[in-house]
Write a structure and sequence with these properties.
Strands 1-2 form a two-stranded antiparallel sheet. 83% of the residues lie in helices and 2% in strands. 13% of the residues are buried. It has 4 domains: 158 residues, no CATH class; 107 residues, no CATH class; 53 residues; 31 residues. The protein is mainly α.
Length: 434
């Protein structure tokens, strides 16, 4: 006898299969959650192994503009003698230009280290050595200024001495590290760990340099391979879209990071010049901090200026006031003149979205979120904008944002835009007729 399915049987079968699927998915989800620590360790191990490759790709990305500039200059010189360059000669020229680019980069780093590091060490030693004297001077100055307000004076003096106590304990901990190591075996173990870490850093840096040389020498081939893979895995329309997104991300990331580095170097140099003119102490240290933190958009200047202002407040309240004025002037020049000129329109975000991206990505990813949040959000913002414009275009509606500023509603029958002014005039006309 042949079994026949009725509607109720099919309904119960579907319910049973659905329940079974939910149970299976719940078990799988539970197993995945239990395996997350193992997966996290595996991901960290993978990134640890790929760290030299990542370093090399970052080095290549940052140095490629300098390579292109040097290569154009070399071909300009060669063009004065001949117009034909063989393929082999081009490969040799590219390799020599890559080596020259890295030579210039290393020379700049060495010069900066030789010029800046000794001054930084000297400034830090001076701060540690003179802190007690400067704190006493500051408390005396506060006592004179607030002589008529003993309660406020005592509170401020207490806060100053409390901060000084915390600072002194920190310095004592740093200077007495050796005393915390009671035996030779522990000392040797810590020393070995430190040496191994240094060796790992040097190893990763050297391998990263070698990787970057390979990448820069054959960057056109790598780009061609990536395009070939994209068109083999996706439809032409989807591949075109992906390649367009990558190009847009390259423009935003490259324009942001390279522009920010140049902008921060200029701000650091200007800060040093102004501090030297006004004879403000620790000029090299403060200029270095201001220049480095200026790489972080929006909040960077405040992050660098606050600790520097505290240090100068201990040395001289008047010099601290000069420094605050200088920082305000520098940030106005940077925000209104240097920044727009150097960064141009590579990001395309308003100030609100810049602040939003820094807060969100900084909250999730810490320092790297602060550093990379703006260009990442700029790419996301562009993708969302393109998606919105495509949907509006399919509905045959305007894609210009300004067209929606005075919009009251869209007529459901005709699709006509009804603006506030038109609606108000219609309402007035109808009320007069009544």
């Amino acid at each position: 006898m042949k079994f026949k399915w009725n509607d109720n049987d099919q309904k119960y079968l579907k319910l049973g299969l659905t329940a079974f699927g939910v149970v299976v998915l719940s078990i799988l989800a539970n197993q995945v959650l239990h395996q997350i620590p193992i997966l996290t360790v595996g991901v960290r191990k993978l990134f640890s192994c790929l760290r030299p490759i990542i370093y090399g790709l970052v080095f290549a990305y940052l140095l490629t503009p300098a390579l292109n500039l040097i290569e154009r200059f070399v071909y300009w010189i060669i063009g004065k003698f001949t117009t034909k360059v063989s393929r082999h000669a081009r490969s040799v020229i590219r390799f020599l230009c890559v080596l020259l680019t890295w030579g210039v980069a290393l020379a700049v780093m060495v010069v900066l280290i030789m010029l800046v590091v000794p001054e930084l060490i000297s400034s830090i030693e001076g701060i540690i050595r003179n802190t007690a004297t400067e704190v006493n001077k500051l408390t005396q100055w506060v006592g004179k200024v607030l002589n008529d307000n003993p309660e406020i004076r005592s509170n401020i003096v207490f806060q100053i001495r409390s901060l000084y106590s915390d600072f002194s304990s920190l310095m004592n901990n740093l200077t007495n590290i050796i005393e915390l190591i009671p035996n030779t075996s522990v000392f040797v173990a810590n020393l070995s760990t430190g040496v191994i870490n240094v060796v790992y850093v040097i190893f990763h840096f050297v391998i990263g340099v070698i990787v970057s040389i390979y990448v820069m020498s054959s960057k056109e081939r790598f780009i061609a391979q990536a395009k070939k893979s994209a068109y083999s895995l996706m439809s032409p329309a989807r591949a075109n879209h992906v390649i367009g997104v990558v190009r847009s991300a390259h423009v935003k990331f490259g324009g942001f990071f390279i522009g920010k580095i140049i902008d921060s170097m200029v701000i650091g140099v200007l800060c040093f010049i102004l501090l030297s003119i006004f004879k403000i102490p620790y000029a090299v240290l403060i200029s270095f901090v201001v220049g480095v933190t200026n790489i972080i958009p929006f909040f960077g200047p405040f992050i660098g200026a606050i600790p520097c202002a505290v240090i100068l407040l201990l040395a001289s309240p008047l010099k601290c006031l000069y420094f605050v004025i200088i920082i305000i002037v520098l940030q106005q020049v940077d925000g209104n003149i240097l920044g727009p000129k150097i960064l141009s329109s590579s990001i395309g975000l308003s100030s609100f979205w810049v602040m939003f991206s820094i807060l969100v990505f900084g909250g999730f990813f810490g320092f790297w979120g602060l550093l990379c949040g703006v260009p990442v959000f700029a790419v996301i913002y562009e993708l969302v904008s393109e998606s919105i414009n495509e949907r509006l275009a399919r509905k045959k509606m305007p894609t210009v944002t300004a067209d929606y500023s005075s919009l009251d509603h869209v007529d459901e029958q005709t699709g006509e835009f009804i603006k506030f002014s038109e609606k108000d005039e219609t309402d007035v006309f109808e009320s007069k007729k009544k």
